[in-house]
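Narrative of accomplishments. A recurring question from our advisory board has been how the design workflow behaves on a single, concrete structure rather than in aggregate. To address it, we present the structure tokens for one chain from the evaluation set, followed by the sequence designed for it. No filtering or post-editing was applied between the two.
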């Protein structure tokens, strides 16, 4: 598929720096290849790279009929939000009703204006992220969102990505989110599809949280059963800035969300929480890499999972403490319920500590529902299936309680 890059006409081929960036992505992908069973970061959720040959890239202009979700602003959430809509991997709305201090541009417009040049590809090394390199080779679709200094949004910004049924399609989406000093925003990424759609979302977010800025980032991968979804969220957090992320993954062939976070200056903080629930044969992968690069930085992680049938849950979490990052705190915990003999959970929590004065811990537990709790509930007149569901809900609710926004919490808990 990478070799076909030159046969696809992308916008901006006459812009030297953009052409160079795409070429770097193409050459990196050819050099390192796509992940396989021997790739450490992908050994639990790899797949045959030849699968990508079954997908095509749609280069035609975006078009929606009257039945598309793009025409119904009320369908996305039960609460007020600023809506950005993607349809079949393409930005669907041209105008955004936004308050003062917030700017949203299509990625094409941000590249044309020169705004994106300082951010695209600056937050991570392509060589470490094969699918991000592939994304860079086809760089075109996405948005750039800037929240200006001191701006506090009164409602969330919701990016709703929807996929229709049709020819199997791969979508390479790249977003840039910039929160300037002392700004505050909530961004929700919501992925939906027609039930019989078959597609591959390859998403990269580059997020820049400046001094004393705060970003709440929610991701709900509510994909079609036949979908594959691979996402890299690369984040830089500066002095006293805060980045909080919550990822909810429902059942599909593969749902992988990878957070790559650098706490660059004193007082920077990050929280990455999540839930996954799979009852058939899907794969859920939540991977995190948080680097504490300065003193007095803090990170917390809590991921709760439930797997049944022949499904697989994957958690890989790494906390890195640099030599100068004294008086740092980093905590990480993953807990999963395994409800069948064919289900599988693979967990790999890691600590890399090169400083002396730190507080760090990590943990992982996997097991079945508690037999004594089930017996107690049945002795009180609750039937077995209801008792199981109550224990499952109690298990994942601990993670949902990490959500700060009550509207988002209620929406996710009701529909997850």
């Amino acid at each position: 598929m990478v070799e076909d890059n030159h046969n696809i006409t992308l916008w901006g081929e006459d812009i030297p720096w953009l052409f160079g960036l795409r070429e770097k992505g193409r050459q990196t992908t050819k050099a390192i290849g796509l992940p396989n069973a021997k790739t450490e970061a992908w050994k639990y959720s790899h797949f045959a790279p030849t699968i990508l040959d079954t997908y095509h890239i749609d280069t035609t202009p975006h078009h929606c009929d009257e039945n598309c979700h793009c025409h119904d602003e009320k369908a996305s959430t039960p609460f007020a939000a600023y809506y950005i809509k993607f349809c079949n991997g393409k930005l669907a709305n041209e105008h955004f009703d936004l308050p003062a201090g917030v700017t949203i541009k299509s990625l094409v417009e941000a590249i044309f204006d020169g705004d994106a040049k300082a951010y695209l590809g600056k937050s991570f090394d392509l060589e470490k992220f094969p699918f991000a390199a592939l994304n860079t080779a086809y760089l075109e679709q996405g948005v750039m969102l800037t929240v200006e200094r001191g701006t506090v949004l009164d409602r969330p910004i919701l990016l709703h990505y929807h996929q229709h049924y049709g020819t199997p399609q791969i979508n390479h989406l790249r977003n840039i989110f910039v929160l300037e000093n002392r700004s505050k925003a909530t961004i929700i990424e919501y992925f939906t599809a027609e039930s019989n759609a078959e597609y591959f979302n390859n998403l990269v977010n580059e997020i820049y949280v400046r001094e004393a800025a705060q970003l709440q980032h929610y991701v709900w991968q509510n994909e079609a059963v036949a979908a594959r979804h691979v996402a890299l969220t690369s984040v830089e957090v500066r002095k006293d800035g805060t980045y909080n992320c919550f990822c909810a993954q429902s059942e599909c062939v593969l749902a992988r969300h990878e957070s790559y976070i650098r706490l660059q200056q004193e007082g920077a903080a990050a929280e990455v929480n999540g839930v996954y629930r799979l009852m058939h044969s899907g794969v859920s992968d939540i991977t995190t890499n948080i680097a504490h690069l300065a003193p007095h930085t803090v990170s917390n992680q809590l991921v709760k999972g439930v797997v049944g049938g022949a499904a697989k849950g994957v958690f890989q979490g790494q906390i890195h403490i640099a030599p100068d990052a004294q008086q740092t705190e980093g905590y990480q915990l993953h807990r999963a319920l395994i409800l069948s003999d064919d289900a599988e959970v693979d967990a790999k929590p890691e600590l890399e500590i090169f400083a002396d004065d730190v507080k760090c811990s990590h943990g992982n537990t996997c097991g079945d529902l508690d037999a004594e709790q089930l017996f107690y509930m049945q002795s009180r007149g609750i039937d077995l299936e209801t008792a199981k569901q109550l224990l499952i809900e109690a298990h994942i609710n601990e993670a949902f309680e990490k959500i700060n926004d009550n509207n988002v919490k209620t929406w996710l808990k009701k529909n997850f």
